C-alpha cells in the first residue's frame, strides 16, 4: 500500500523500555527491575493524587469537563496568567503537535539543536516540514543566531533544559536571542524540566508570564509527567498569548485528556512540597552519579534535569545498555541520537546503588578484556 511519502523518513519514537519487557524477555524478577529510562519521578505518584483518583474512579463513565476550568484556573493562578493563555494537552507532546500543525506544512522549516527531544522532528515530518539542526548537539545560542540570519523558520524549538543531554541555556541568552527572532517565527520554549532547573540555578529559570509578555511569538510548554509524578496520566500544557492559544484550540480534539487525568493534575498542582522534595533529593543523588563518572574516568554533562548523560570513548553505549537491560537495569541508550552515551534517570537511593553496582561490573569486565 502507498502512504504519504514523507512518512518514509520518520523514525518511530523509541520509548523507554517498560518493566514488563525485561521480565518477559530476560526472566528478571519484577521486583529486581530498575527503570531509569523515562525520566519519571522515582518518588511516585503524590499521595493526595492517589486518594483523589480513588475518590473519582466512579466518574470514569463521564466525559471530562472540556473547559478544564479547574485545572486552567489553578495553572493560571500559579503562573499569573489568564485561562485564555492556557491550553491543556495529552502530555505537552500533544501541544508540540498542535504547534507544528498550526505553523507548518510542506515547505516549512523548523530549527532545533542537533541532539534534542525527538518529537519535534517527528511531528514536523508528519506534515512534511524540513528540520534544520544547529551544528552542536547542545544548545549554543550563537549557532541559533547564525541560523536565523541565513534562513527563515516557522518554528524554533528551545528545550530548556535539553532532553536527552541535560544542559540548559541561561535565560539572559535566551532573551537576547528572542530579541532577534522574526515576529512571524513561533518559538516554543519546552520547559519539561524547569521545575528542576530553576531550583538548581535561578539563571536558568524561565517564567512563562514574563516570557510571553516580552515576546509575543513565544509559547511555553510544561508537563505533569516529570517533577509532578504523573507520567501515566498524560497531562501537559502550553502558555501563550491569547491570539496563539485561540488558534491552537481550533486544532485540539475535544476531551483530549481524561476525567481522571484532570483530577490528578489539579490535585498535583497543590503538591509543591512533593515537588520540592523530589527535586532536592534528585540533585543530592545526582552528585553520586557525577562522582561515579569521575571515579571511573568518563565524561558526563552537567545536568539541570532529573537525569544525567554519560558519554563514552572506549565503551559502546549500545552494548553497555543491552548488558544492563539483561540484568534488569533499564537506561536509555543514546546511539539513536548519534551519541555514544547513555541517559540515566536519577532514581531513589537504592535504585542508584543497583545501577552503580551493575555498571561497575560491566566496566570492570571491559577493563579485563
Ligand atoms: C517528557 C518531555 C516532554 C513531554 O512529556 P509529556 O509526558 O508528553 O508531557 C516534552 N518535552 C521534553 C523535552 C520531555 O522530556
> Which term fits the overall shape?
globular
CATH class of the largest domain: Alpha Beta
Question: SSE order in H/E notation?
Answer: HEHHEHEHEHEHEHHEEHHHEEHEEEH
Strand content: 5-15%
Q: What class, by secondary structure content?
A: alpha/beta
Give your account of this protein's structure.
By secondary structure, the chain is α/β, with parallel strands linked by helices. The chain has two domains: 136 residues, Aspartate Aminotransferase, domain 1 (Alpha-Beta Complex), CATH 3.90.1150; 225 residues, Aspartate Aminotransferase, domain 2, CATH 3.40.640.10. It has 14 helices and 13 strands. The protein starts with 18 loop residues before the first helix and ends with a helix. Bound molecules: pyridoxal-5'-phosphate (PLP).
Please name the defining characteristics of this protein.
alpha/beta; 7-stranded mixed beta sheet; 4-stranded antiparallel beta sheet; single chain; binds pyridoxal-5'-phosphate; Aspartate Aminotransferase, domain 1; Aspartate Aminotransferase, domain 2; 2 domains; 369 residues
Amino acid at each position: 500500500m502507498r502512504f504519504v511519502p514523507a512518512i518514509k523518513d520518520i523514525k518511530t519514537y523509541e520509548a523507554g523500555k517498560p518493566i514488563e519487557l525485561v521480565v518477559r524477555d530476560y526472566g528478571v524478577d519484577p521486583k529486581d527491575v530498575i527503570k531509569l529510562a523515562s525520566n519519571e519521578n522515582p518518588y511516585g505518584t503524590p499521595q493526595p493524587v492517589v486518594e483523589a483518583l480513588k475518590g473519582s474512579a466512579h466518574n470514569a463513565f463521564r466525559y471530562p469537563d472540556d473547559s478544564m476550568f479547574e485545572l486552567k484556573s489553578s495553572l493560571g493562578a500559579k503562573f499569573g496568567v489568564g485561562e485564555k493563555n492556557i491550553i491543556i494537552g495529552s502530555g505537552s507532546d500533544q501541544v508540540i503537535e498542535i504547534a507544528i500543525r498550526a505553523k507548518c506544512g510542506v515547505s516549512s522549516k523548523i530549527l532545533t539543536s542537533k541532539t534534542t527531544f525527538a518529537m519535534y522532528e517527528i511531528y514536523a515530518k508528519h506534515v512534511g516540514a524540513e528540520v534544520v539542526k544547529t551544528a552542536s548537539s547542545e544548545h549554543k545560542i550563537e549557532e541559533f543566531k547564525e541560523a536565523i540570519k541565513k534562513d527563515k523558520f516557522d518554528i524554533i524549538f528551545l528545550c530548556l533544559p535539553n532532553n536527552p543531554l541535560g544542559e540548559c541555556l541561561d535565560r539572559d541568552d535566551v532573551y537576547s536571542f528572542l530579541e532577534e527572532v522574526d515576529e512571524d517565527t513561533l518559538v516554543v520554549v519546552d520547559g519539561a524540566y524547569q521545575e528542576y532547573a530553576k531550583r538548581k540555578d535561578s539563571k536558568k529559570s524561565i517564567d512563562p508570564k514574563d516570557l510571553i509578555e516580552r515576546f509575543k511569538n513565544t509559547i511555553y510548554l510544561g508537563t505533569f509527567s516529570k517533577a509532578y509524578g504523573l507520567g501515566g496520566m498524560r497531562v501537559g500544557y502550553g502558555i501563550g498569548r491569547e491570539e496563539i492559544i485561540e488558534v491552537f484550540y481550533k486544532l485540539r480534539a475535544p476531551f483530549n485528556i481524561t476525567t481522571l487525568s484532570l483530577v490528578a493534575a489539579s490535585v498535583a498542582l497543590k503538591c509543591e512540597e512533593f515537588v520540592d522534595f523530589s527535586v532536592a533529593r534528585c540533585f543530592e543523588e545526582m552528585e553520586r552519579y557525577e562522582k561515579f563518572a569521575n571515579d571511573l574516568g568518563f565524561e558526563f554533562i552537567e545536568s539541570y534535569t532529573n537525569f544525567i548523560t554519560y558519554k563514552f570513548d572506549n565503551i559502546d553505549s549500545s552494548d553497555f545498555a543491552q548488558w544492563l537491560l539483561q540484568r534488569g537495569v533499564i537506561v536509555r541508550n543514546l546511539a539513536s541520537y548519534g551519541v555514544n552515551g547513555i541517559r540515566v534517570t536519577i532514581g531513589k537511593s537504592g535504585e542508584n546503588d543497583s545501577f552503580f553496582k551493575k555498571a561497575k561490573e560491566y566496566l570492570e569486565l571491559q577493563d579485563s578484556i
